[in-house]
Structures are given as C-alpha cells and as structure tokens.
Design a protein that fits this description.
Aminopeptidase; seven-stranded mixed beta sheet; alpha+beta; 3 helices
Amino acid sequence: MAKVQFIKFDMIKGFASRAAKERVSVKDTASTVWFGIFENFYTEESELVGFGGVIIKGSKARVKSIYVLPEHRGKGYGSLLTEHMIRAAQKIPHIKTLEAYAVNPKYYEALGWVSLQTAKGITVVQRRLLGA
C-alpha cells in the first residue's frame, strides 16, 4: 500500500540526478513543502518511490516538482502526490489557486487543471481550490 507523507528535503537528494534528466527541479527553498510517496509503507520494505514539492509564498502556491521513479510509474503514484498537494494547499485559507509549470500539461488537465499559457515548451497550468 502506498502512502504520502511530509518529508525533509534530505530524503530526496538521491533522486536529484535522475530527476534532472527529466527536467524536474530538485532544489530546496525555505518556502518549499516536500511530500514523499512510499510503497509498502506499513511494512519493513517501505521505500520512497517519488516526491513532490509545493512552494508557498504569500497568497500564492505553486507545484515545484513531481517525480516518481520510472520503475514505479503507472501505479497512480503521481496522481496521489498531486491530489495530496492540492489538499494541503486547500488547508491554507488565503490560497485560492495552485499553479504548476508543466512540461506535460495533459497530465494536469486529466486531473482537472486548466492550461493558461505556453512558452518555450512549458505550460502554466492552474487548479482552483475548493472554497476559492
């Protein structure tokens, strides 16, 4: 069973080179909240198989990155991470939308996000949060 948890940046440093090859940012900032997805969470074989980060600055929130190890893709882990980050942002009353800079906007659109603009192969996508 997979589980999403808050994690510290130190836990994902080992993913940096693999993620960078796929244009996924793995740089920490003071305003980034990191989440990890663990496979077999409730067993001794628990393994971190992906991560996501959300930057929260003032009244704005933006997905910094989502990454799942290639050998664990196709299991819905990216969607679980994304939905978890949406729920976390919704708990902050002054945050009305969550944005992401997407290389693959179709991923976000399938989860109910709206594409706003594209430049240099990157699309800005946005998700309106409940109560906004």
